[in-house]
Design a protein that fits this description.
The protein is α/β, with parallel strands linked by helices and about 350 residues long. It is built from nine helices and 18 strands. The longest helix has 14 residues. The structure holds aspartic acid. The site of aspartic acid (ASP) has 10 residues, from loops.
Length: about 350
Amino acid sequence: MRVKSRRILIIYTGGTIGMVRDTATGALSPFKFEKLAEAVPGLKELDVETEVCCFDRLIDSSDMGPEGWVNIGQVIHGNYGEYDGFVVLHGTDTMAYTASALSFMLENLGKPVVLTGSQLPVGVLRSDGKSNLVNAIEMASAVDEKGRPMVKEVCVCFGDTLYRGNRVTKFSAENFDAFISANLPVLAKAGVHVKWSRGADVSRDEDASAPFRLQEKLDSRVLILKIHPGLTPKTILSLLENNDLKGLVLETYGSGNAPTSKEFIQALGTAAKRKMPVVNVTQCAEGSVEMGKYAASTQLLEAGVVSGRDMTCEAAVTKMMYLLGKGADYAETCRLLGEPLRGEMSGS
Ligand code: ASP
């Protein structure tokens, strides 16, 4: 399936995959890619030409955010014509956020962008880093019988599995299978052969002939609010009356439910009065928000809250930053929040 002429750019941002233990403090800190490449000698033998772009400051992904996403996006954008695909080495802690953000920012993407990392540093004997890296490169360079890339979207490759990037959540701080994609089947699985799920390619509302473009402007003045027993309307009001807050992701119970008291709903309704979009995602790992199924969510609809269906919280918050960054008005932002842009939610 692969042809030797494929070129992949590896973008190394940091994370456990390239970390080494500091002998003085015992803490893990990142090292340069040359060392990582030394620890994976098989890289040179791969039937793919790889080049590496190493971030000047390698970071733990706890420090990754909109600025870093733009940096990654710029590297991809600046090298788009030169390479057939991109592999981003990234810490696992916020990988799902970065993958989601990039899926929105990279508009009209026509090439694979595969994020990977590892639970153990690549220099450690039992490290998962080596196989994750090799799998990511193989999957990013795979083509179909007509020589077209197998995926043209932002993915996460972890523990032998390729996932849609905006559908994953970090699930385990311990296991090599660190991610889950509870609401969408995996894109591919690497065993003796790589098995692709045909037809799983991303559904887009984008015009296929439109040129690839990077949306660099993001508005990060958003908040994720997890509903919990005891959360008072007063607390909600104090958050929503803050003029520096521009969007809210509401993590609700089950199929999208929240307390039903008049005070609670009125407090949430402040957002709509301010023309601040609010999107509803579930706290459950699996399943979807179905507003109107119970009275406890019907009132949210009436208060102007948009159903995020089965979007992950990571996808919802980065989509909010992306839409606000694009400067869409309140009605348009609410409309787009409730529709799939990059296959981040089920349905059409
Ligand atoms: N703290 C690390 C990071 O996210 C964990 C990892 O890479 O797995 O950068």
